[in-house]
Amino acid sequence: MLTPKYVLDNFDEVKRKLESRGPFGQLMDEFREVTLNERKKLQELEELRAQKNKLSEQFIKDKTDGKETGGLILESKKVGAQINSLGEEMTSIAKRWNELIKIIPNIPNESVPVGKSSEDNVVERVIGKSPDFHFPPQAHWDIGTRLGILDFERAAKITGSRFAVYFGAGALLERALINFMLDIHTRERGFKEVIPPFIANAASLTSTGNLPKFAEDLFKLQGYEWYLIPTAEVPLTNIYRNEILDGSILPQRFVAYTPCFRSEAGSYGKDVRGLIRQHQFNKVELMIFSLPEKSFDELEKMTAAAEEVLKRLELAYRVVSLCTADLGFASAKTYDLEVWMPSRNNYVEISSCSNCTDFQAGRAGIRFRREPKAKPELVHTLNGSGLAVGRTVSAILENYQQQDGSVLIPEALRPYMNGLEKITSS
User: Is the pTM of this model over 0.85?
Assistant: First the structure.
């Protein structure tokens, strides 16, 4: 966590690592300056208070001895005014410090590749073989529209762009995938299912790092300090906010299905068609609270759990280690899972698994004790998609499309589709 002591003791290293993420050098210089200034002012304040205490003691003594105290009263008032003025100055300094700490991202782990853009991300492994079509493959939005299972025009009439209405086998496919993913994670991977609120307050979003930096990407409820959640990571992380846990219960592994809501600010003109970048979408989210020394092992386990879904669905994918410049705000290390999309002849992100170390826990006040009387320590938090459901639907429609226009259902998913083997025109 970026505590004042840690930053001052390791300033050059912290600044170097954060500069590998982007232009954070100037911000860190100001952070150090504000921190040092606060310490200096605190020392001055303590000295003034000590001086005022001495004046008070002298006043009592002189008054008891019948001596003149007018000079002491004037001096005490002068020192009191200095204390008040310094207190106001420190309030202003503390306000700026709190503003800075909320916009400084997590420190990248040493294992993260250094880079300047997504072009510098590193492919860790490629799994599966992309389908070999003997006909021009269609995009999922064309397939879904032709089969009558996706309707983007009527969704736009109901709400606006970047929404979809699912019909028949399309709606069943979405629901089947949610249950399929939840069963894998709960029955086989040791995650406990949770149904959290789909609305979160500002404190919850600040804890995860969504506020204040990404306020424009959130949907705020008019008249309330509540927001529609952009991901289940937000409510799941805040389950233990401001709590001290018994270290023996860690790790805690949770999984939740929720709808997610994002304004997609800053993505103008990008993925405007289809299910890839919607304002409302379903996602199965994985969340882990870990002991600090175990968190990177937990990241590997979380990534493997997300991969298992793609393996069972027999979808070709690759695992990518994000470089420093491409990391999310709260992440110290992230693996992206990217599924093969024939219409693009390329891979598309379908899951992002991140170790946020103690960054979110520090903001949320989530701590643990190794022993009953031990000093509390910050937990490490991890989150990842297991998977994004709409993107999984789009991947199935594109990778399993047939020359006659139908779409095969992956064999592992058929029990969740009432035995349906193929989607045909209705």
Answer: yes
